[in-house]
Automatic annotation (TrEMBL):
Belongs to the pectinacetylesterase family. Keywords: Cell wall, Cell wall biogenesis/degradation, Hydrolase, Membrane, Secreted, Transmembrane, Transmembrane helix. Hydrolyzes acetyl esters in homogalacturonan regions of pectin. In type I primary cell wall, galacturonic acid residues of pectin can be acetylated at the O-2 and O-3 positions. Decreasing the degree of acetylation of pectin gels in vitro alters their physical properties. GO terms for molecular function: hydrolase activity. It comes from Turnera subulata. Its EC number is 3.1.1.-. One of its GO terms (biological process) is cell wall organization. InterPro entries: PAE/NOTUM. It is found in: Secreted, Cell wall. This is Pectin acetylesterase.
């Protein structure tokens, strides 16, 4: 409905301008515009179906808490600095409640004692420096307009903290007393144990993905991921920029 407070002012202006024939069409057109704008404004505010949420804004439930893998200590699965590995988990719902999407964080490698030592005081080498919450967006988004295929799946972001695409072994560790843990393979194993216990053991569909060093981890662990899940589950792996060229120095 048009705003009644606009009517007296509009008609007063029309009366004053009536002596000028050229002003009448202008005034009439102006009143028509005012009525149209106020009418559609009222209609949109009264009708909830016209509301469109702003998906660019950040809602509280876009942020997902960090979870430490406490059982990792007994398995000897540690980040570079000896802290516990971690992940973020958002439970699926509706038709996606039996489907799982895992995304492995990227971040390159450390390949020298110096670079790995620097790395262990960053989120890429220690869960002590990881954010307590991260925003799930893109392939992890909960909005169907942004992520139509996976928005309601169980979604996991695996934090990358071993410096070697979740492939390191204790045999690779320095024996000179340096406190650096290369336990990526053990991190992978303990993470899978935990996620299977959370319901992934009953997955109907599953996607393992990763970017950069996480993409390489996806390539490394894809076959094992397939073997861990039900035989009748549909399982895929997606490695984004997972092939890294290694410079060989003679």
């Amino acid at each position: 409905m048009a705003n009644p407070r606009l009517l007296p002012a509009a008609f007063l202006w029309l009366k004053k301008s009536a002596k000028k024939h050229w002003a009448i069409p202008t005034v009439g057109f102006t009143i028509l515009i005012v009525f149209a704008l106020t009418f559609f404004s009222d209609q949109s505010s009264d009708n909830p179906s016209t509301f469109r949420p702003n998906f660019d804004s950040t809602a509280d439930d876009d942020f997902v808490d960090l979870t430490l893998v406490h059982r990792a200590k007994d398995k000897g699965a540690f980040c570079l600095d000896g802290s516990l590995p971690a992940y973020h988990f958002q439970k699926g719902f509706g038709s996606g409640s039996s489907n799982w999407l895992l995304h492995i964080e990227g971040g390159g490698w450390c390949n020298t004692l110096e670079s790995c030592t620097r790395r262990q005081v960053t989120p890429l080498g220690s869960s002590k420096y990881m954010e307590p919450q991260v925003r799930f967006s893109g392939i992890l988004s909960r909005y169907p307009t942004q992520n139509p295929e996976f928005f309601n799946w169980n979604k996991v972001k695996i934090r990358y903290c071993d410096g070697a695409s979740l492939a390191g072994h204790p045999e690779s560790e320095f024996k000179n007393g340096t406190k650096l843990y290369f336990r990526g393979q053990r991190i992978w194993e303990v993470l899978m144990e935990e996620l299977l216990s959370l319901g992934m053991s009953n997955a109907k569909q599953a996607l393992l993905s990763g970017c950069s060093a996480g993409g390489l981890a996806t390539l490394i662990h894809c076959d094992n991921f397939r073997d861990l899940l039900p035989k009748d589950a549909t399982v895929k792996c997606l490695a984004d920029a997972g092939k890294m060229l290694v410079e060989i120095i003679p």
